[in-house]
Amino acid sequence: MSALRLNKTRQAGKNIFYMHPYGESMRIRWHGHSCFEFFGVENSVLADPHDGKSIGIKPPISSADIVLISHDHFDHNALRIIKSEHTALFAANGKHKVKGIEFEGLPSFHDEKNGTVRGMNTIYKFTMDGISVCHCGDLGDIPSEDVIKALRNVDIIFVPVGEVYTFSIQKVKEFLNLVGPKIIVPMHYRVGGLTIPLKTLDEFLDGVPRENILYVGNEVELSSDDISEFSGIWVFAR
């Protein structure tokens, strides 16, 4: 029996699903842009923090135990906003065990010219409470076959879709087809107030059947048993 209950409401003409599990689970909260926080039974992990004011949106409020930085750009590296003592992995390729969690940093480029324009980018993969997670940072091109193999069939992938500073929607979709994740979470796209000139989410969602898109609100809770029941694209709100 599923441990997940869905309560559906309406917001701005969209279905919003709030997920409430019974028992232990992982929580995921969106802080805007590419910043997501993952809350496990023992630790919390924050990926790519921004400071809010530098990009025109609300700042994150976080006391994370572990912080992942994909690359050294101001809208992804604002460690100063963390309100607690923490361990940071800063563009850290390779395998690292931090506070009981195994992280793998995978090399990639921030542009389509082997990093000569915007530099390198680290994709992070880790497992929390039985759920495998991939955060792509500012991925600028389809990574190597070795990286694709390491990511294949991941449970949840967080991928930039706003183009301009990351790869094209065509390449995003090609990359996702190669990886085959169960759940896709778009990030790094234009929202109200954002001062970075990105494209909106619309182009990425264009042509996707409505039944394959879930609007999950700002925060979602799920257990590993639920992953097989919910697939497709999850859109967070803030």
Structure description:
The structure is a single chain. The two termini are 31 Å apart. The protein has an 8-stranded mixed beta sheet with strand order 8-9-10-11-12-13-16-14, covered by helices on one side. The protein has one domain (4-236): Ribonuclease Z/Hydroxyacylglutathione hydrolase-like (Metallo-beta-lactamase, Chain A, 4-Layer Sandwich), CATH 3.60.15. It is mainly beta and 238 residues long. The protein is built from 3 helices and 16 strands.
Specify the helix fraction band: under 10%
CATH class: Alpha Beta
With helices defined by DSSP (H or I, 4 residues minimum), what is the helix count?
3
- Count of distinct structural domains: 1
| Largest sheet features | 8 strands, mixed
Radius of gyration: 17 Å
Low-confidence parts lasting 5 or more residues at pLDDT below 50? 1-23
Number of strands: 16
CATH topology: Metallo-beta-lactamase, Chain A
From the spread of the alpha carbons, the general shape counts as globular
Give the ordered list of helices and strands: EEEEEEEEEEEHEHEHEEE
CATH architecture title: 4-Layer Sandwich
Given helix and strand content, the structural type is mainly beta
Tell me what portion of residues adopts beta-strand conformation.
35-45%
Q: How do the strands of the widest beta sheet line up side by side?
A: 8-9-10-11-12-13-16-14
Task: Measure the end-to-end span.
Answer: 31 Å
Mean of residue pLDDT?
A: 90
Draw up the topology in text.
Elements: E1 4-11, E2 14-21, E3 26-30, E4 36-39, E5 44-47, E6 66-69, E7 87-90, E8 94-98, E9 101-109, E10 120-128, E11 131-135, H1 145-151, E12 156-160, H2 169-179, E13 183-187, H3 202-205, E14 213-217, E15 219-222, E16 232-236
Parallel strand pairs: 5-6, 6-7, 11-12, 12-13, 13-16, 14-16
Antiparallel strand pairs: 1-2, 3-4, 3-15, 4-5, 8-9, 9-10, 10-11
